[in-house]
Amino acid sequence: MTETKLKTLIAYGTAFGATARTAEEIAKILQERSFNVKLANLKEEKIENISDYDLIVVGSGMKMGNWVSEAEDFLKEFHKEFENKKLALFISSLKPVEEKEGKAGRVARTRKVGLDDKILKYDLNPISTGMFGGVIDYNRLGFMMRKTMEMGYKSLLIKHGFKETAPNVYDLHDWDEIRGWAGELAQKALESNGGRI
Prior knowledge:
The chain has helices at residues 18-32, 69-78, 95-100, 104-121, 143-159, 175-191, and strands spanning 7-13, 36-41, 55-63, 66-67, 86-93, 128-133, 135-137, 164-166, 169-171. By secondary structure, it is of the alpha/beta class. It has 2 domains: 7-133 and 175-191, 3-Layer(aba) Sandwich (Rossmann fold); 135-171, no CATH class. Helix 1 (18-32) crosses helix 6 (175-191). The two termini are 13 Å apart.
């Protein structure tokens, strides 16, 4: 008798593409562990039903302290159904820069707003939460936001060795951290599934 693979939905909202790349890496790690994964960009695809999935992973970029609207809407729509699922949440943020600056308070505040407050608001019980670096793309910011970010962050990015991956684009992903989290998530999901894939 063959074991059925743990059916997983990774649904995400992305502002500048960083969360998409994180979601893709998480999907890759889960697939390597024989999870059956569907990846959904909520800006491009409307999820009508989650009943077939055992594990739901919801990710969002953080824009001005808020989740991307499509990811927030997904939580709002399905939060009651999450009670019968294994759930994980992750966000993309400026965490790597703030950590290097010793701004533990800012990191904690982002975690509170981006993860803890969502858990309370929608009465969620995730088996795992993740907070990762994203991408700062100055080319896609409005004029005022760009000027504010350039004054506040560009020198810090250079100071801490973050390199431009394209003109005015800085990638803050820590791929080892993301892969480690995804591996731990896989283990937790299997443990709460009685070890069955």
